[in-house]
């Protein structure tokens, strides 16, 4: 179920353009508009859920189950040395979009601009 004022729901619906990395019935992945490193990707459930506190085990399971495939696709495309998986919940933890998302942040060694 989509949420009226949610930008990520609008991205899933195609109302806001995005650079798609992966899509299936339950999950959508796209490049973050603000690339902290090359290939920085957001992975989101299609079902709107605010953050990890409000996410059902079923939605969490579907989301996390896709991470290995998506991470390997990014690895193949960008050839990073490593990758961070990050999730922010609530403003105090720097969540700025209130639709659950995982950041996949490829790392390229010292000087990749991310710390
Ligand atoms: P948060 O700070 O909530 O963990 O991450 C939200 C992320 O969403 C930020 O890294 C921000 O750059 C990204 N973002 C916000 N609006 C858009 C958008 O319209 N398109 C895309 N591709 N990314 C967005
Ligand atoms: Zn949403």
TrEMBL record:
Record domain HIT: where? 7-115
Q: What does UniProt give as the signal peptide span?
A: none
Superkingdom, natural source: Bacteria
The record places the motif (Histidine triad motif) at 99-103
- What protein is this chain from? Protein hit
Q: What species was this sequence derived from?
A: Oceanobacillus kimchii
Q: What is the lineage of its organism?
A: Bacteria, Bacillati, Bacillota, Bacilli, Bacillales
Note the residue range shown relative to the complete protein: 1 to 115 of 142
């Amino acid at each position: 179920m989509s949420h009226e004022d949610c930008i990520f729901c609008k991205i899933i619906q195609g109302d806001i353009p995005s650079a798609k990395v992966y899509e299936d019935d339950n999950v959508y992945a796209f490049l973050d508009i603000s690339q902290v490193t090359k290939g920085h990707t957001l992975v989101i459930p299609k079902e709107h859920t605010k953050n990890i506190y409000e996410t059902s085990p079923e939605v969490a399971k579907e989301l996390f189950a896709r991470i290995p495939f998506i991470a390997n696709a990014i690895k193949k495309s960008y050839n990073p040395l490593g990758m961070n998986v990050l999730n922010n919940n609530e403003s105090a933890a720097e969540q700025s979009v209130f639709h659950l998302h995982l950041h996949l942040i490829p790392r390229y060694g010292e000087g990749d601009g991310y710390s």
